[in-house]
Amino acid sequence: MYGQLVERFDTHHWLRYGLFAAMGMLGLLLTFLLPALRGKRAGWLYLTLPAILLRLAVFPSAPSDDSNRYLWEGRLVSEGISPYATTANDASLAPLRDVYWEGINHKDKRTAYPPLAQLLFALIAQIAYAPWFLKLLIVLADLAVIAGIVAILQQRGQAIAWAAFYAYNPLSLVAYAGEAHFDAFFLAAAVWAVW
Fold first, then answer.
1. Average pLDDT over the chain, rounded to whole?
2. What is the pLDDT of residue 8?
3. 56/94 Cα distance (integer angstroms)
4. How far apart are CA 97 and CA 94, in angstroms?
5. Are the C-beta atoms of residues 5 and 15 closer than 8 Å to each other?
6. What is d(CA 131, CA 43) in angstroms, rounded to the nearest whole number?
7. What angle do CA 23, 27, 31 make, to 5 degrees?
8. Could you give the CA distance from residue 103 to residue 101 in angstroms, rounded to a whole number?
9. What DSSP string runs through the chain?
10. What's the rounded Cα separation, in Å, for the pair 73 and 80?
11. pLDDT digit string (tens) for 52-69?
12. Quick count: other Cβ atoms within 10 Å of Cβ 7?
């Protein structure tokens, strides 16, 4: 339905803001109902099932234009070309232009992504050079963040219900499952490093 009303999920449109508000209210409702459950199994089920379902609901939306750069620069790195050496619109890279290059914003700028991210993009491009695969890995990293938060809460003897503030947060849902921003990888690493 949303895709028929606007071309992209990241378009500034009243429906986007309405969906954010609705997801936020649903997330708060789920979060505050969660502590009433007793037992680890019920808590885990109540935390993870809605988290996965909410991510699946947002998954079909169009990724942000950043994902084009992730994929295209990943392809460059996997072919031994440094995205730091030149800009995306450099004529020497013309033979490598494809649909993802077309979608890159700021083609006149050098990459803004750090080397570790570039290596990750290259690995993704070698496995499956497609936005759906990038999104899938980002969602898995996002779910790993939830698992890491739960591990930290359990380590501290606190209720896992507090992880719901992240699990059902509209920002994490849209940024990762919807728009495919790569920050989920580094957030997962940071959370597990804290653990």
1. 85
2. 52
3. 36
4. 5
5. yes
6. 33
7. 175
8. 5
9. -HHHHSS-TTS--HHHHHHHHHHHHHHHHHHHHGGG--SHHHHHHHHHHHHHHHHHHHTTSPPPTHHHHHHHHHHHHHTT--TTTS-TT-GGGGGG--HHHHT-S-TTS---S-HHHHHHHHHHHHH--SHHHHHHHHHHHHHHHHHHHHHHHHHTT--GGGGHHHHT-HHHIIIIIIT--THHHHHHHHHHHH-
10. 11
11. 988 998 888 888 889 999
12. 10
11 pLDDT above the threshold of 60: no
Give the tokens for residue 139. Answer: 């969602």
Torsion of CA 78, 144, 30, 22, to 10 degrees: -10
pLDDT tens by residue, 115-174: 999 999 999 999 999 999 999 999 999 999 999 999 999 899 888 888 888 998 888 888
Q: Which of 51, 66, 128 is nearest to 103 (CA)?
A: 66
Measured between alpha carbons, how far is residue 150 from residues 35, 40, 47, 52 in Å?
A: 14, 11, 10, 15
pLDDT digits (tens, 9 = 90+) for 53-110: 889 988 888 888 899 999 999 999 999 999 999 999 999 999 999 999 999 989 999 9
- What's the token pair of residue 120? 């990750």
